């Protein structure tokens, strides 16, 4: 009887983490699109979100330290610049380009193109040897790629500039989440806690995105009547308030993403977004009035079939060839989990103090 109860507890926890991620992911997508209608400075908005994330992460770390009585991890400059910087820069460009694309494309095209991140995560997982090659992966790639082509073919609201931005963001997202998983699973770094990871990433993300902001938006923003040259104080306060709300959503989304990745995997994060993407497309069609043809919907369905096939294959191989997957642990403790893992031994591999901190967050 212990096994079914333990399985149900883990399943309920996973479902709870996924739903927690859905709420903030869907919310910030529509919120940023709404904000970009009047505030055309996506890179500045992203920088504000990063600053808020850093402040909230620092406050949460201080509260955790008082609660547990244990000092928080602080990386050396050597580890920080060599091991955290690549993840930070990839994350900053992924988020920045994603927000930037809202100036040009609809939510439906953004959502569909972003789903191609599974391909890039899969590619980089093979490069970093976090996943094992599989002949069925060719079919998965063909389904997702053809679905994306059908969705964008003869689309009445297609914008090439925005599409390239999101596609590049998806490519960087593949690097981002692969490196994030490796980073969080390096035992010697001690960044298994999502808050510690966010705290260390935000400063380098800010520095990496700031030059691009200065080049594209610095001069125009300094002369904008939305903020610095507003004729009334209420206008500036309203702008700051809307940006701050987005920052709170971004912090909650970042935390839910990191929590889901740390407890499952980066590929699980992308795969769990299948139903979320369906919800976003339905909401975009009926709320934002995005126009989608039958061919577009068919392309989306083909893409979902490719992602679902990959889920089924990974589940099958994880159950029937578990030992072969776990051979990856020979490459070091930091590569202990493949990008999609059933997490059967998670409770045994997690440290007791880390579980205590995660319980604080979950409550």
List keywords for this structure.
globular; 15 helices; 363 residues; single chain; Sugar_P_trans_dom; transmembrane; TPT_transporter; membrane; disordered C terminus; mainly alpha
Describe the structure.
This protein is mainly alpha-helical. The chain has one domain (2-362). The protein contains 15 helices and no strands. Helix 1 (2-36) packs parallel to helix 11. The chain starts with a helix and ends with a helix. Its main location: membrane.
Question: Can you lay out the helices and strands and say which pair or pack?
Answer:
Layout (H helix, E strand, L loop, with lengths): L1 H35 L5 H27 L8 H25 L5 H8 L2 H11 L9 H16 L7 H25 L9 H29 L10 H31 L2 H6 L1 H14 L7 H27 L1 H5 L19 H4 L2 H11 L1
**Which value, in Å, is the CA radius of gyration?**
21 Å
* Overall pLDDT metric: 75
Give helix % range.
Answer: over 70%
- Tally of separate domains: 1
In sequence order, what are the helices and strands, one letter per element? HHHHHHHHHHHHHHH
Number of helices: 15
- Going by helix content, strand content and strand pairing, the class is mainly alpha
Low-confidence stretches: 322-363
Biggest β-sheet strands, sense, barrel? none
Number of strands: 0
Summarize the structure.
The protein has helices at 2-36, 42-68, 77-101, 107-114, 117-127, 137-152, 160-184, 194-222, 233-263, 266-271, 273-286, 294-320, 322-326, 346-349, 352-362.
């Amino acid at each position: 009887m212990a096994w079914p109860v333990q399985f149900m507890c883990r399943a309920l926890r996973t479902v709870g983490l996924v739903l927690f991620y859905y709420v903030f992911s869907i919310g910030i997508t529509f919120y940023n699109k709404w904000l970009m209608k009047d505030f055309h400075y996506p890179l500045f908005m992203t920088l504000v979100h990063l600053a808020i994330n850093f402040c909230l992460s620092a406050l949460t770390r201080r509260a955790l330290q008082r609660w547990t009585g244990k000092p928080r991890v602080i990386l050396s400059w050597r580890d920080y610049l060599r091991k955290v910087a690549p993840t930070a820069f990839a994350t900053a460009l992924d988020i920045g380009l994603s927000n930037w694309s809202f100036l040009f494309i609809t939510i439906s095209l953004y959502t569909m193109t972003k789903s191609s991140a599974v391909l890039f995560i899969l590619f980089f997982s093979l490069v970093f040897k976090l996943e094992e090659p599989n002949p069925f992966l060719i079919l998965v790639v063909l389904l997702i790629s053809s679905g994306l082509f059908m969705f964008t073919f003869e689309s009445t609201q297609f914008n090439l500039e925005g599409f390239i931005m999101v596609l590049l963001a998806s490519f960087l997202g593949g690097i981002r989440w692969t490196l994030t998983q490796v980073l969080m699973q390096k035992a010697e770094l001690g960044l298994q806690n999502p808050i510690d990871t966010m705290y260390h990433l935000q400063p380098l993300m800010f520095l990496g995105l700031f030059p691009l902001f200065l080049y594209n938006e610095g001069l125009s923003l300094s002369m904008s009547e939305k903020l610095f040259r507003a004729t009334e104080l209420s206008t500036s306060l309203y702008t700051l308030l809307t940006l701050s709300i987005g920052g709170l959503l971004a912090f909650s989304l970042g935390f839910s993403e990191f929590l889901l990745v740390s407890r499952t995997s980066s590929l699980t994060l992308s795969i769990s977004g299948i139903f979320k993407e369906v919800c976003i497309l339905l909401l975009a069609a009926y709320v934002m009035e995005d126009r989608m043809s039958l061919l577009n919907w068919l392309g989306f369905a083909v893409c979902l079939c490719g992602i679902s096939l990959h889920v089924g294959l990974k589940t099958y191989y994880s159950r029937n060839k578990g030992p072969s997957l776990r051979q990856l642990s020979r490459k070091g403790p930091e590569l202990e989990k493949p990008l999609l893992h059933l997490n059967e031994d998670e409770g045994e591999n997690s440290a007791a103090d880390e579980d205590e901190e995660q319980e604080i967050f979950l409550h």
